[in-house]
């Protein structure tokens, strides 16, 4: 394809992705109100349990509209993720070899459900995380915890998105291993740096820099990472056995062949 054809193809893929995102945003606009009620429930529950004033504070006239629009596009990006992920894959795949296409197709086939599963996991742990963090508010009738709506929505989105990305880690590692770029033993050698990196990323992704949220974010990512490394080591062993068997068969075939000197004597 010429450069112009590539640009036309890119434009078409972007238009399709944008249409899917807008449709998803419309769905997100409708779902925002019941979802906001669901994420507000932990704050109401902790206020009733401890007896202090806890609520979400909208600090400006346009804050409610801004957050509604932001939440709608965030939900829309999640709803439309299968479409725009496919559009990215469809744009890249024509330039790949048959083997590379199989790898990228397998990656896309596994990445979408894992990403959605990670988002669901983030949504599932969210009430417990919010409740646990608000539980540190002093148990006093005169105390209050007025959470800024912007900070709270950002916290929820970061938590859910981080969990979605965390579930993609094993797919990336296994894909790199299957491509022969990185062996499982090499991954294990750098486990200390991995733990340090995951801890730093979790600390940055956890608003407020609290240890509890950082641990909840880091733990699943570390479990997935080490699980992927074990699988990569197992795949390496299978690959090495297959290569050794093929080498033995090749040597046996070469030994059973008639030497050239014997052919000269016939």
Q: Enumerate the strands of the largest sheet in spatial order, edge to edge or round the barrel.
A: 1-2
The number of helical segments is 10
> Approximately what portion of the residues adopt beta-strand conformation?
under 5%
Helix content percent band: over 70%
Arithmetic mean pLDDT:
79
Would you spell out the secondary-structure blueprint of this structure?
Blueprint: H1 3-50, E1 53-57, H2 63-79, H3 81-92, H4 98-134, E2 144-148, H5 149-166, H6 169-178, H7 184-189, H8 191-205, H9 211-256, H10 260-265
Parallel strand pairs: 1-2
Helix pairs in contact: 1-2, 1-3, 1-4, 2-5, 3-4, 4-5, 4-6, 5-9, 6-9, 8-9
What's the short version?
GO terms for molecular function: proton motive force dependent protein transmembrane transporter activity. The protein is mostly helical and 266 residues long.
Notable characteristics:
flat; protein transport; two-stranded parallel ribbon; transmembrane helix; 266 residues
Account of the protein in words:
It is found in: Cell membrane; Membrane. GO terms for molecular function: proton motive force dependent protein transmembrane transporter activity. With 266 residues, the chain is mainly alpha-helical. The chain has one domain (3-252). Helix content is 81%, strand content 4%. The protein is built from 10 helices and 2 strands; from the N terminus they run αβαααβαααααα. It has a two-stranded parallel ribbon with strand order 1-2. Helix 1 packs parallel to helix 4 and helix 2 (63-79) packs parallel to helix 5 (149-166). The mean pLDDT is 79.
């Amino acid at each position: 394809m010429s450069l112009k054809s590539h640009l036309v193809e890119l434009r078409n893929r972007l238009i399709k992705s944008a249409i899917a995102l807008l449709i998803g945003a419309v769905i997100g606009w409708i779902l925002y109100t019941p979802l906001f009620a669901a994420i507000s429930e932990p704050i109401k529950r902790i206020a009733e349990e401890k007896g202090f004033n806890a609520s979400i504070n909208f600090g400006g006239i346009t804050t409610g509209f801004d957050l509604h629009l932001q939440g709608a596009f965030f939900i829309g990006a999640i709803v439309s993720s299968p479409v725009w992920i496919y559009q990215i894959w469809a744009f890249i795949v024509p330039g790949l070899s048959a083997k590379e296409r199989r790898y990228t197709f397998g990656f896309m086939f596994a990445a979408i459900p894992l990403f959605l599963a990670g988002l669901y996991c983030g949504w599932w742990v969210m009430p417990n995380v919010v409740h646990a963090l608000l539980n540190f508010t002093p148990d006093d009738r005169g105390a209050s915890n007025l959470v800024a709506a912007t900070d709270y929505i950002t916290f929820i989105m970061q938590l859910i998105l981080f969990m979605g990305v965390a579930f993609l880690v094993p797919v990336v590692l296994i894909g790199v291993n299957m491509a022969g770029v990185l062996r499982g033993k090499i991954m294990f050698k750098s486990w200390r740096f991995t733990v340090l990196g995951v801890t730093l990323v979790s600390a940055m992704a956890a608003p407020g820099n609290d240890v509890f949220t950082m641990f909840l974010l880091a733990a699943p990512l570390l479990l997935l990472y080490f699980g992927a490394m074990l699988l990569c080591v197992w795949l390496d062993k299978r690959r090495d056995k297959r290569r050794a068997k093929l080498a033995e068969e090749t040597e046996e075939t070469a030994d059973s062949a008639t030497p050239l000197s014997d052919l000269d004597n016939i």
